[in-house]
Write a structure and sequence with these properties.
This protein is mostly helical. The chain has one domain (3-54). Helix content is 75%, strand content 0%. The protein is flat, with a radius of gyration of 15 Å. The two termini are 16 Å apart. Keywords: Membrane, Transmembrane, Transmembrane helix. The chain crosses the membrane at residues 9-27, 33-52.
Length: 65
């Protein structure tokens, strides 16, 4: 996959995340939704770190162009 395609995918996922976050804020139980959003990202970060250290996943470092 070319670098241009990877950058577009990353940008698309970033925009999707921002749109999801703003959609999350509009819902009535704001406190509950934000708590779930941040806890989910915290758990995903911990699991990612553990899986990369164990060798199950390979984390790709994208160089700045």
């Amino acid at each position: 996959m070319g670098k241009h395609v990877q950058k577009n995918i990353i940008r698309l996922l970033f925009i999707f995340g921002l749109c999801s976050f703003f959609n999350l804020i509009r819902k009535p139980p704001l406190k509950d939704w934000l708590l779930i959003f941040f806890m989910k990202s915290y758990v995903a970060t911990i699991l990612d770190t553990l899986l990369v250290k164990k060798g199950y996943l390979k984390s790709q470092i994208i160089p700045k162009c």
